Amino acid sequence: MSVSIRQIHPVFVGEVSGVDISQPLSREAVAAIEAGMDRYAVLVFHDQKLTDEQQMAFSVNFGTLENPHGGNITRPEERRLQVGMGDVSNLGKDGRPLARDSRQRAFNLGNMLWHSDSSYRAIPAKYSLLSARVVNPVGGNTEFADMRAAYDTLDAATRALVEDLVCEHSLMYSRGSLGFVDYTEEERAMFRPVRQRLVRTHPVSGRKSLYLSAHAGQVIGMPTAEARILLRDLNEHATQPAFVYVHHWRPWDLVIWDNRQVMHRVRRYDEAQPRDMRRTTIAGEAPTTAQVPA
Ligand SMILES: [Fe+2]
Q1: Whether pTM exceeds 0.90
Q2: From the CA of 157, how far away is ligand 1's center (Å)?
């Protein structure tokens, strides 16, 4: 068996076959998957029955696991999964769906906005790997938008305008847009905005992409209202249906995406029913721009 990849969307996304990722992989198999990521930006694997340990072991073929500190309001004692596993379920520690008025649930609803994982970190994430353990019966698709296609199709004036712009990203911007504005002092410090270039260049392919995210709330040197209109316009352009792939989850799907090249969002689902999705995240290698010292 060897890794084979079939493109399943007109502009990006590959479906991978010929590999069992619960087992240690050869160097060739890892290289084939990484080359597929560089090209397709999203890879879909079906029927990959994984334990959390196997998911983490597969993930570290592509880099180091990101330190989750500062990514959520969930306190360590409230965590359902071990360190290294990101919990993007709707479940509390007791394994039951979170209450409608739960602060954790309100915060997690931010994942329904188009975003790039960890764009609120000074060194943002490389890959995210999401394993479907329990699929919700109603909704819950994940959608991906190809940000290279978004960049490639900008008109010349807009391309020139955005080329060297730098944005501020923070979880407080994405959650703030949903009316989630109450934070402790500790959370405010943790969610302090970071700077990201609006156009980034992929280190391997050299392709440029728009680096947008719901976490972006300011453009350096631009009045806030003007910045937010610009970001909204760019988001609308970037998420037009031609550039979007909709993933309908089956149990034991694993999807990997390159946060440097795509945005994603989850769609609404029946929150009375469980949706158990577990994420590992591969840390990025460098900031996209200089940061303001703390
Ligand atoms: Fe996400």
Answers
A1: yes
A2: 31
